């Protein structure tokens, strides 16, 4: 299923505390956002990449895209003060057709098989998200007191990518703007339209690099993948 992808990369990475946007940090000597871009660059189904950037990073991002021969980036779009605004800016630039994926540039481990399951589901139903079952027991609190234990079997930790028919995603973003609604993911904007969203079970490797310890998890995932490639070659 052909699709276009919006990659929000316009944050500041405050929780990472690296003194620069975390998408520019290196894993295996390659910047995080280049790892993410390469997943889409090498996917034949991906028709175009729209990258939302922080204007402060523009020169470096342009240099790296050229250095790593990334050819599918159709536009660099200045982001806004919130992730949702960055994505809306990019959404106004994509070709108004087909399935649109939204994927955090700070999630460099998503695999192409899962992207394809997701885009197929979005093509069929209009909206689909990747998520994994919650592993921890979750409690709702009032102050520092437990108010209730939430039934875990129905809880999912939501990731990106999230995939939508273009027209549905545009409607959702326009309504959110009209209502001054700020959601924490794209699906929540579509849910507000009353549209059903399908969950596609994802993979625990698809982490978002958020705080410094995530870099250790990232290193472990890369080691595991190198080992798997080596074993296949043996
Ligand atoms: N993002 C964006 N525009 C913003 C904020 C975030 O495009 N105004 C992007 C980030 O670059 C990241 C993704 O959205 O790829 C997920 O956001 P998050 O993990 O919160 O990244 P940051 O906002 O950069 O980190 P922090 O919240 O710690 O500052
Ligand atoms: Mg943020």
What's the quick description here?
By secondary structure, the chain is α/β, with parallel strands linked by helices.
Could you please describe the fold and organization of this structure?
The chain is α/β, with parallel strands linked by helices and 234 residues long. Helix content is 35%, strand content 26%. The chain is built from seven helices and eleven strands. It has helices at residues 32-41, 58-67, 83-91, 112-125, 166-178, 186-191, 213-233, and strands spanning 3-9, 26-27, 30-31, 46-53, 73-78, 99-102, 127-133, 138-142, 145-150, 156-165, 198-201. The protein has a seven-stranded mixed sheet with strand order 5-4-1-6-10-7-11, with helices on both faces. The protein has a two-stranded antiparallel sheet with strand order 2-3. It has a two-stranded antiparallel ribbon with strand order 8-9. It is globular and about 50 Å long. The mean pLDDT is 97. The structure holds cytidine-5'-triphosphate (CTP) and magnesium ion. Magnesium ion binds at residues 11, 83.
Task: Summarize the topology.
Elements (H helix, E strand, L loop, with lengths): L2 E7 L16 E2 L2 E2 H10 L4 E8 L4 H10 L5 E6 L4 H9 L7 E4 L9 H14 L1 E7 L4 E5 L2 E6 L5 E10 H13 L7 H6 L6 E4 L11 H21 L1
Parallel strand pairs: 1-4, 1-6, 4-5, 7-11
Antiparallel strand pairs: 2-3, 6-10, 7-10, 8-9
This protein binds cytidine-5'-triphosphate and magnesium ion.
